[in-house]
Amino acid sequence: MALHSIPISDAVRIHSTAMVEPGVKIGAGSSIWDNVHIRRGTILGAQCSVGEKTYIAPGVQIGNRVKINAFVYICTGVTLEDGVMISAGVIFTNDRFPRATTPNLRELRTSDPDEHTLPTLVREGATIGAGTTVGCGLAIGRFAVVGMGSVVTRSVPDFALMIGAPARRVGYVCRCGEPLLRFHYHGEPESADLRCKPCGRAYILRKELVAEAATTWIGSTP
After folding, report:
1. Is 13-187 in CATH node 3.30.1490.480?
2. Residues of the chain with pLDDT under 50
3. How far apart are CA 106 and CA 96, in angstroms?
4. What residues does each domain of the chain span?
């Protein structure tokens, strides 16, 4: 059941079967659906939706207007910026070399953060497809799309379209989600001027990096 001793706005909707621990902060207009468990110290922004049976570990940072679907596992160390979409069944990780016990097998390791806990950043507007597993110590770039069932083992550039296990870049997408360029069966061009047919937004591709044409090109990766 929901814990009512926490400072949460009256505008927040929490299902009666959800468990929200003390110390959680939830922004106005957000909805927490059935059997969700949100652990202590997590910050959830305004106008977010957390789908049924999702688990959010302690200290997770979530921006505004983030959509998290059902059966998602978000571990400590994850940050989701504004406008991120996390589809059903996505799993985040935070330890590259996990062990249940100490090396002598005589002591169970705790689940508390330690020197092995690595952060993961999902930048604004990105989408992670259903059933994807995301490795740790990585960044998913702005407005990138990771296709369903992928395994993300390295950082993803802005606007990239990624598929597979391990995930590989097969194109680029617009802010609106429509494909800008696909090169699944052909090599990626070194440079190109791209335009989204549905919405008309323009982009510049230079050496595996995409920037919006209206912004200053800085040549940096996420």
Report:
1. no
2. 1-7, 216-222
3. 22
4. 13-187
